[in-house]
Amino acid sequence: MLRRQIVKSDDDHAADAHERGRDYLGPVQIDRLLAAARKGRHGIRDHLLILMMFRHGLRVSEAIALRRADADLAQARLWVARLKNGLSVEHPVAGDELRALRRWLAARDDALPWLFVSERRQPLTRQAVNYIIGAAAKRAGIGPVHPHMLRHSCGFALANRGYDLRLIQDYLGHRDPRHTAHYTRTAASRFDGLW
């Protein structure tokens, strides 16, 4: 008996992307993760790292590549250099994030160019970021969390606030709108007021 092999195209994968498991955190989980990060050994840094990864939808490699010069505290702006051929843009920095940034920079006694450094005065590694987020998630009691979930959480949070696809696409630096579409297609706010 011959088995029929089903081959999915890229369009099928994009259309079915919403069928994968939930790979983002909701607002309550983000708050718990941030609170737990504050309680760690390097709470000021870890809290800011997680906050910025969530607020700006940063990939790990984008977060560890951030430099002090990318943060304009006077104008409350952050230059986000996107990787993977993404659209690099300047993002606003909200008040609580600006205060956390100032607190972190005031706690440092070095002139190193990187925004996030280890206690050995080196830029954080991907493994260190994985560990920081995993340890905070464990303290928060929210199960396993990987860094890319923060990027997805950003996309879903923006979609649930009613922002359109194009704005979210530009904010996250996506060149292809198909990468952004699953945030808006599964946003609960789309269905508000139907009944």
Structure, briefly:
Helices cover 48% and strands 5% of the residues. The protein has 195 residues and is mainly α.
Task: Name the poorly predicted regions.
Answer: 1-19
- CATH-scheme architecture: Orthogonal Bundle
Number of helices: 9
Order of helix and strand elements from N to C terminus: HHHHEEEHHHHH
Looking at CATH, which topology would you report? hpI Integrase, Chain A
Ends distance: 49 Å
Shape: globular
GO molecular function: DNA binding
Organism: Pukyongiella litopenaei
GO biological process, one term: DNA recombination
Protein name: Tyrosine-type recombinase/integrase
List keywords for this structure.
48% helix; 3-stranded antiparallel β-sheet; hpI Integrase, Chain A; 9 helices; 195 residues; 5% strand; mainly alpha; 3 strands; disordered N terminus; globular
Word description of this protein:
- The chain is mainly alpha-helical and 195 residues long.
- It has one domain (27-184): Intergrase catalytic core (hpI Integrase, Chain A, Orthogonal Bundle).
- Helix content is 48%, strand content 5%.
- The protein contains 9 helices and 3 strands; from the N terminus they run H-H-H-H-E-E-E-H-H-H-H-H.
- Strands 1-2-3 form a 3-stranded antiparallel beta sheet, with no helix packed on it.
- Helix 2 (27-38) runs antiparallel to helix 3 (43-55) and helix 2 (27-38) packs across helix 6 (126-140).
- The longest helix has 15 residues, at 126-140.
- It is globular.
- Belongs to the 'phage' integrase family.
- Residues 20-195 form the Tyr recombinase domain.
- GO terms for molecular function: DNA binding.
- InterPro entries: DNA_brk_join_enz, Integrase-like_cat_sf, Integrase_catalytic, Tyrosine_recombinase_XerCD.
